[in-house]
Amino acid sequence: MNVGYYYHPFSSLAHHSSVSCYAPITRTSQTLLHHHRPVSISFSFFQNPNFYTGNTIFFKMQRFCSVSGKNKNKAMVERLQHFGVIMSNKVAEVMETVDRALFVPSGSASPYDDSPVAIGYNATISAPHMHATCLQLLEENLQPGMHALDIGSGTGYLTACFAQMVGPQGRVVGVEHIPELVSLAIENIQKSAAATLLKDGSLSVHAGDGREGWPEFAPYDAIHVGAAAPEIPQPLIDQLKPGGRMVIPVGNIFQDLKVVDKNPDGSISIRTETSVRYVPLTSREAQLRGY
Ligand SMILES: C[S@@+](CC[C@H](N)C(=O)[O-])C[C@H]1O[C@@H](n2cnc3c(N)ncnc32)[C@H](O)[C@@H]1O
């Protein structure tokens, strides 16, 4: 029998409750625990931006910080494969190519830990397992030549991964409402494996309210939303191609990662993938004053 860990993404909880960040458990399978909701959480946590993590609520994962060796990014990807989060070679290849350290602010904890990291402006770069989950869910809609929209692009990490997936014949658009984060994302991408795609114009990052989408390059085969919407914005549904897929966290205090498929006849099918905690998809003013 293997001993593993429930990775508890809410470091702030450790200070306020008996729940620790990494509680040892007995691991008998690698099935992800996607259906649990947090219990006994004081509402004061929701005032703390560090509470919003862009993570699944509970995730069985060993600490990445124990990883040593030269290529820690590769080791991070291998760990995600080991735990069944990454199942496809293409997703693994792309996450190996785009070094997460280039997108995590220097001076932070290890960029390869499976945890979100604050990036300023009450925002975070999501945890690696969340990026991997979204890439897996969208893989079929990120084939070479396809169009993808990344709302709340933040550091640009996932936008760069999308661009690597669809390649130079595709089109990837990041939309972020904090102009300073748009500049940061562009700087980060310029240092990354996706730099050529940015230079050649198949990848772009724009300042704007993501709730409106980005009609210029619609319709999109894939739409990813990196912040939790109270409800699915209609412009994003409108900009989804028939046969296209959107992955979006929906909710306020309790959030679900929704998978929205637009069927060939234009009808919509929605299912819940897992419980998550993301920063809100909101106005710039609300975000800057702390929601
Ligand atoms: C959890 S962060 C994720 C960032 C990105 N996926 C990453 O991992 O680097 C959510 C992002 O959504 C942005 N955001 C929130 N509301 C937005 C809106 N209405 N329009 C555009 N971006 C928004 C935030 O500024 C933040 O950068």
UniProtKB/TrEMBL annotation:
Which residue windows are coiled coil? none
Q: Which GO terms describe its biological process?
A: methylation; protein repair
Name the catalysed reactions: [protein]-L-isoaspartate + S-adenosyl-L-methionine = [protein]-L-isoaspartate alpha-methyl ester + S-adenosyl-L-homocysteine
**EC number, UniProt record:** 2.1.1.77
Q: Which GO terms label this protein's molecular function in UniProt?
A: protein-L-isoaspartate (D-aspartate) O-methyltransferase activity
Q: Keywords, A to Z?
A: Methyltransferase, S-adenosyl-L-methionine, Transferase
Please name the top-level EC class of this enzyme: transferase
Q: Extract one GO cellular component term from the record.
A: cytoplasm
Q: Which domain of life is it from?
A: Eukaryota
Q: Which family does it belong to?
A: Belongs to the methyltransferase superfamily. L-isoaspartyl/D-aspartyl protein methyltransferase family.
Official protein name in the record: Protein-L-isoaspartate O-methyltransferase
Give the originating organism: Pisum sativum (Garden pea)
